[in-house]
Amino acid sequence: MYLALDFSTWNEARTFIDAHNFQGVPVKVGMELFYREGPRLIENLKQDNHDIFLDLKLHDIPTTVMKAMTNIANLEVDMVNVHALGGSEMIKRAKEGLISGDSNHEPKLIAVTVLTSMDDTSLYKELNIGGSVNENVVRLAVTANKNGADGVVCSVQEAKEIKDVCGSSFLTVTPGIRLQGSDGNDQKRIATPALARENGADFLVIGRTVTNAQDPKSAYEKVQKEWRNGIK
Ligand code: C5P
């Protein structure tokens, strides 16, 4: 379970971590925080013993992504990602970049399939992409798998089929997690932690269902309990 540190500054993120006793939990750092604080933020989080998913969603020509990944590998985070829509060559080169870093700690490479903020209508009406979200997600997962990614970001709804098609060791990382009754915000393909468990997701990304809760720690523990035990 990665707690999404969707804050504008390290100071805000650290205040939140300290106020709610999230010291040492696995965290996800996205572009908002990273673009403000840069690599020193990663150093700070590592010093505080957090596992780190660096969610920068790279999407550029293969050579640029490869070189960026070489630099990212040197940050020694645990997980990084690209957009699968960048294509097979880009995914392959991203992996090459990670392997060629100086560090012995190679991050897992995850490919974002279709953002969980998109649905069938937005895919077709805005991007003119045919087929359902589900079909597109599975096709992108197969491409990612063939080209060296360790897994994909997808919604809980697609996790089971991806495991069936790509194999059980191919990782599924699922955002859009909401406790029953929480606001979906801008996410369209949301699911509970219990359904994520049932569908075989490997990692949850937990954001606003915890960070916007009145009592973030107890919301986090509730997510964790549902995720570990399901709802009986
Ligand atoms: O607040 P919420 O739980 O919706 O947060 C989801 C987090 O996961 C955000 O930080 C968002 O950037 C990230 N994410 C996502 N969809 C992806 C990849 C990452 O929502 N495909």
Automatic annotation (TrEMBL):
<feature type="active site" description="Proton donor">
    <location>
        <position position="57"/>
    </location>
</feature>
<keyword id="KW-0210">Decarboxylase</keyword>
<protein>
    <recommendedName>
        <fullName>Orotidine 5'-phosphate decarboxylase</fullName>
        <ecNumber>4.1.1.23</ecNumber>
    </recommendedName>
</protein>
<dbReference type="InterPro" id="IPR013785">
    <property type="entry name" value="Aldolase_TIM"/>
</dbReference>
<dbReference type="InterPro" id="IPR001754">
    <property type="entry name" value="OMPdeCOase_dom"/>
</dbReference>
<comment type="function">
    <text>Catalyzes the decarboxylation of orotidine 5'-monophosphate (OMP) to uridine 5'-monophosphate (UMP).</text>
</comment>
<feature type="binding site">
    <location>
        <position position="207"/>
    </location>
    <ligand>
        <name>substrate</name>
    </ligand>
</feature>
<dbReference type="GO" id="GO:0044205">
    <property type="term" value="P:'de novo' UMP biosynthetic process"/>
</dbReference>
<keyword id="KW-0456">Lyase</keyword>
<dbReference type="GO" id="GO:0005829">
    <property type="term" value="C:cytosol"/>
</dbReference>
<comment type="subunit">
    <text>Homodimer.</text>
</comment>
<feature type="active site" description="For OMPdecase activity">
    <location>
        <position position="60"/>
    </location>
</feature>
<dbReference type="InterPro" id="IPR018089">
    <property type="entry name" value="OMPdecase_AS"/>
</dbReference>
<feature type="active site" description="For OMPdecase activity">
    <location>
        <position position="57"/>
    </location>
</feature>
<feature type="binding site">
    <location>
        <position position="6"/>
    </location>
    <ligand>
        <name>substrate</name>
    </ligand>
</feature>
<feature type="domain" description="Orotidine 5'-phosphate decarboxylase">
    <location>
        <begin position="1"/>
        <end position="223"/>
    </location>
</feature>
<dbReference type="InterPro" id="IPR014732">
    <property type="entry name" value="OMPdecase"/>
</dbReference>
<feature type="binding site">
    <location>
        <position position="178"/>
    </location>
    <ligand>
        <name>substrate</name>
    </ligand>
</feature>
<dbReference type="InterPro" id="IPR011060">
    <property type="entry name" value="RibuloseP-bd_barrel"/>
</dbReference>
<dbReference type="GO" id="GO:0004590">
    <property type="term" value="F:orotidine-5'-phosphate decarboxylase activity"/>
</dbReference>
<feature type="binding site">
    <location>
        <position position="116"/>
    </location>
    <ligand>
        <name>substrate</name>
    </ligand>
</feature>
<feature type="active site" description="For OMPdecase activity">
    <location>
        <position position="55"/>
    </location>
</feature>
<comment type="pathway">
    <text>Pyrimidine metabolism; UMP biosynthesis via de novo pathway; UMP from orotate: step 2/2.</text>
</comment>
<feature type="binding site">
    <location>
        <position position="208"/>
    </location>
    <ligand>
        <name>substrate</name>
    </ligand>
</feature>
<dbReference type="Pfam" id="PF00215">
    <property type="entry name" value="OMPdecase"/>
</dbReference>
<feature type="binding site">
    <location>
        <begin position="55"/>
        <end position="64"/>
    </location>
    <ligand>
        <name>substrate</name>
    </ligand>
</feature>
<dbReference type="InterPro" id="IPR047596">
    <property type="entry name" value="OMPdecase_bac"/>
</dbReference>
<feature type="binding site">
    <location>
        <position position="187"/>
    </location>
    <ligand>
        <name>substrate</name>
    </ligand>
</feature>
<keyword id="KW-0665">Pyrimidine biosynthesis</keyword>
<feature type="binding site">
    <location>
        <position position="28"/>
    </location>
    <ligand>
        <name>substrate</name>
    </ligand>
</feature>
<comment type="similarity">
    <text>Belongs to the OMP decarboxylase family. Type 1 subfamily.</text>
</comment>
<dbReference type="GO" id="GO:0006207">
    <property type="term" value="P:'de novo' pyrimidine nucleobase biosynthetic process"/>
</dbReference>
